[in-house]
Amino acid sequence: MKRILVADDEEKIREVIKEYAQFEGYEVAEAENGMEAVEMCRQNDFDAVVLDVMMPKLDGFSACKEIKKLKDIPVLMLSARGEEYDKLFGFEIGIDDYVVKPFSPKELMARLNVIISRNNKAEEKKDLLEYGGLVIDIPARNVFVDGVRVDLTPKEYDLLFYFAKNKNIALSREKLLCDVWGYDFYGDDRTVDTHIKMLRSRLGKYRDYIVTLRSLGYKFEPQEGGEFKK
């Protein structure tokens, strides 16, 4: 079940939003001021936060800044002030939408649904690493070469994933042994070289993405696109 936090010092507004949100299947938590909202976000995970601008102890803009430092949570800002300056300032500090009071609860929920859906899609994309025709599906631990799934051993996948996280960074054999196999692994450089050889063979035409650095180790140097986002 999706969870949202509604932070507003007006109880009636919290009740209205809670009623509509629960009707759409959301679990709703409430905060009466900005400080409480920040602390609740520190201790809990939410799919979105609704923040009123004018709140005691800590205003909505300041609360948003603090929340964004803690977690990347979508924020919908509520305010009785509809001036362009306030809206632009809100977007500059990272809010996802701005709704002016008085508001339609149905419209607010529609906007809330949009930003949550948009954030979920963005998170899904972060779970994929794409380098041209080489795709690494992180949650499923699958690798695709030009749309065809290739079977890797668990250690080969760990090695490829580690390379992707450290793209364009020179990695010694000793560091690969320590970080991929574990510091207590009993083995030598030949273990790394053997697995690299097998991994390259499975990557087909993308084998050259793994570059050999003479007298040092290896570097993952994809020639097109791709970046690690999570």
TrEMBL record:
GO CC terms in record: cytosol; protein-DNA complex
Keywords carried by this UniProt record: DNA-binding, Phosphoprotein, Transcription, Transcription regulation, Two-component regulatory system
Record-linked Pfam families: Response_reg (PF00072), Trans_reg_C (PF00486)
SUPFAM superfamilies, sorted: C-terminal effector domain of the bipartite response regulators, CheY-like
CDD domains in UniProt: REC_OmpR, trans_reg_C
Every OmpR/PhoB-type domain range: 126-222
PROSITE patterns: OMPR_PHOB, RESPONSE_REGULATORY
UniProt xrefs under PANTHER family: DNA-BINDING DUAL MASTER TRANSCRIPTIONAL REGULATOR RPAA, REGULATOR OF RPOS
Protein name: Stage 0 sporulation protein A homolog
Origin organism lineage: Bacteria, Bacillati, Bacillota, Clostridia, Eubacteriales
